Amino acid sequence: MNVLNIPTVTNDKILIAIFGGFLMGLSVGFVIKGGGVIDGFEVAAHYTYKKIGLSTGEIVLFANSIIFLLAAFNFGIEAAMYSILTYFTAVKTSDYVVDGFEEYTALTIVSEKHEQVKEIIVKDFKKAISVYKGERGYLPKSFEVRHDCDIVMTIATRLEVHRLKESISEVDPKAFFYSQRIKEVTGGVVKRKGHH
Question: Which helix (H) or strand (E) holds 189?
Fold first, then answer.
């Protein structure tokens, strides 16, 4: 900072907190993604995650918020609030860099062509599936019409979900999809994320 002449972009504290947090989170995210740590506290947070279930980012944010609030006695509550906002933005950004594109999603498909759907997922996308025996139909104007079917569920990343939907829609344009974000996946045949 003493050598480089960095011009002042803005004096708006909100913009500084948000974009400063974004840039900080981006750099921290790349470090964690590469298998490193910043100050070692992430290691303790990861261990705590196994015990209480809060994410590493949430634990680090909580701990640093306490530090910021203690610092408020010396620097004022407003400075502490801006610091918490900056760190909150940084945590959300780093979480997205680390997990965003590879975030797991549970995709469930109801289709009359369920056998073809299974083949697409398993043979073309090399994904494991779970199959529920169910019924489709029960529409408002034809409630009495129903058919037995296999309800197919698979776990994929966000990027894979879009391609899966496109491929299945080519076979059955009327296929019904719904997806859910997955916080954690253990066991089964799923690509493992690196642990830091």
Answer: none
